[in-house]
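Pilot study result, target chain (186 residues):
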Amino acid sequence: MSVSGLEASRTELLAQEDVIPFSGIVAWSDRNRPYGFVVPRRGTKLGHVFVHKKCVERSGFAPLFEGNFVTGEAERSPKGLLKAVRILSVEYKKTALSATCLLKVEVGPIGDLERATVKFHDPGMGYGFVVLEDGGTEAMVHSVVLRYWGLQRLKRGKDVLVRCASGPNGLMVVELRLGELAVEAQ
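Predicted structure:
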């Protein structure tokens, strides 16, 4: 092997040491902008990972959307921010567990689907509440979870199916399915 070949191998090894593996949920993606952000799984000390559209395309994947579960490799920029350099896998299916990554708080075990009625939802405030059919227990619906399940707003008094988990301030909705006409026409 030539000296230049050894130097190239050494450079590759050094570059691989700088690669940081990550996996998490796409928390923000906008088809009008060429980038998005991934929130890494709980238990990691990583911050949000910046993911550019070209990185996704170069890795051979379709565009990312909020709620996709992504595994990849990132590098730290000179400013300390994480930037994806390669996407290894994308799971396009949404789950209640993946929704919990967006809440930015620790949640307890995830319960079964339950019937509930929308008490209120205020998009300006970023949250709302549902009342569970069990006799009046309330659960908070954060707007990021609502968007994750493809919804923008909920109409007061409408029936929904929810899956909840205990959060720091009570029950939080981590999955939401609509009863008939629960979403106002956009």
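One observation from the pilot: The CA atoms of residues 39 and 179 lie 30 Å apart. A full batch analysis is planned for the follow-on phase.
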